[in-house]
Amino acid sequence: MVSFLNSGTGIFDPSIDASGSYTYTISSPNCPDATATIIVSVFQGPNAGNDGTLNLCDSTNTVDLFDSLAGTPGTGGTWSPALNSGTGIFDPTTDPEGNYTYTLTSSCGSSTATVDVSFSSTNNAGTDGSVDFCSTDTAVDLFNSLGGTPDVGGSWSPALTSGTGVFDPSIDAAGSYTYTISSPSCPDATATVIVSLSQEPDAGNDGTLNLCDSTVAFDLFDSLAGTPDIGGTWTPALNSGTGILDPNTDLEGIYTYTLTNSCGTSSATVAVSFSGSNNAGTDGTVELCSNSPIIDLFDLLGGNPDVGGTWSPQLTSGTGIFDPSIDIPRTYTYTVSSAGAACPSDTSKVVVSIIPDPNAGSDNALNLCIDQTEPINLFDSIGGTPDTGGVWTPALTSGTGVYDPTIDSVGIYTYTVTSEECGLTDSANVTVTIIDIPDITGLTMSTVNSVVCVGLEDAIIDITGANQLPDGDYSIVYQLTDANNSVNTIAITIIGGNATFTIAQALLPNSGLTNVTLSQLFVLGQNCSAITDTIEPVSISVENLPTPEIISSGDEFCSEDNPTIADLSTNIIDEEIVIWYDQPIDGIPYNSTAALQDGVVYYGALTSESGCESATRLEVSINFITCVGELLIPDGFSPNDDGINDEFNILWLDELYPNFKLSVYNRYGNILYEGDINSPKWDGTSKNSNTQLPAGVYFYILEFNEGEREAQQGRVYLNR
What we know:
This protein has about 725 residues and is mostly beta strands. It folds into 8 domains: about 70 residues, no CATH class; about 70 residues; about 70 residues, Immunoglobulin-like (Sandwich), CATH 2.60.40; about 70 residues; about 70 residues, Immunoglobulin-like; about 100 residues, Immunoglobulin-like; about 70 residues, no CATH class; about 80 residues, Immunoglobulin-like. It is built from 2 helices and 50 strands. The protein is flat and about 170 Å long. InterPro entries: T9SS_type_B.
């Protein structure tokens, strides 16, 4: 049989079966196998490769066409048409362009491939060039600036705005631009055009030069406006031969600056003028009377001032005329300026002063008390700020202005001041009057409420018995001493001998006894005080209750105790009575039986017998807590009606075990009491006879009837 062939038989397929040894075997049941072997060799067909191309760029070097075949051609083939070399070597100088065929033959057949040979000329970008433009020139193709005979169709870099080789001087930048020619087979060729741009000449803008009495030379170029270029010429020519103008030799006039280059001509002018300096004269001063005639300040300037200047600050006249009756004495500045000239302004000053008018002050009155005996200078009673050195009429006994109440008479005294320099006079009158002192015979002071609460009320003082004083307005001075101290003046109105005045609570900040003493009493507007030495002082007790203080944790209460306002008051440390309010100021007071509310703020104030309260209330925020704990079973009680331990009371029993049952027995086992949450507590009597049981030990059984807690037994001692 035949094995290992793809056909499954003895058929060999050279395209898929491998070369090698194949063994043929014959077998039979009775005889041994017989075998024979065939050795198969498979030869590959010839491979001339794939077609290729060869483009030679003006080359004179030989080339092996085999290297231009594509694929993996086998060697040993032949070329047709035959090359001059007799092999596959191609010589551009002798062999022509065209298709050359490579043929490879073997026992398995033939294979061919061709190489297409062509010749190409080298790329030509021309030679470098340069070009100079004015910024105003029209667009130009840079190709025309290349030397030689460049090929068309190349590209420029950097790219121009036009997208081609056209250069626009108004938008493209000066610099180097490179022209490149490319082809597939020959290397790139480049050439560069250097572009330079020239600006139009700029002679700047017209200017002016005004010289003020100058003898110093100036460069006219510095007077041109704008940003002129240097290197121009001036016409008419200056004596310096340049742009330097010498005021001593060159004339006023218009000088033209001209600048020329390949892009055109530009010119600008400088108008030169000469000016004389301004003269405001020299400073001056003047002293005038208020009644002096008007005067021209110009006449007070020294030197030879120019006319036509201005005065500042401006005078009422609008010129230099000063009117003493309306213009203010001060320093006035005269300024001379030349509009448009180069010479600076010149100034001088005139200081104007006015001799003050005589001032005798203003009329006034001098009220002297009837008991006044000391002399007094009437000058001190004149109103305003009078000048000294005046005279009094009628003449006083002293021969001066000193008035003696014991000698000189009452009346009008005239004070006169005269200015000899200005011929002016001024006078003022002092009217002298003798005033009786108020008669306070019978006047007393008292107060209805001798206790004042600090911060809550004023003190009211009553004046009575002042029947010798006419009805009217008076001024009193009273003094506070002891706990509070101050001296105060207040106006009062007395009618029928009676009046009241108020001492503000701000004057009574301190607690304790304060005395009120009447120091002086005047008729309102006069200065003669009554004699107050005999007036008895009034005493005021000033109460200042402190803010209440509360014990530690005094704001906490057992919720099951149903606490009240009274319970809150028992937690206050102070002994005074406490009133509780719903507001920190004013507000409504609570009744002592009112129930406390958890989280509510209460405001407490101490109160005295006189009705004063704490100026600042204590703020307490109530905090309810749960006070129920473990059962507390007393070991005895004493039912003697003294209000203390009169019953067998197990604490927290009702709250913790509301379903309980309590039974009490004597030592013989007789039941004496049975009760639950709805029964009265055991008070030491027998339920059978309702009689009081004797002192001794009794036994109880407490059934909880709640959960798994077992009944509890114990003993209690009853004490009589």
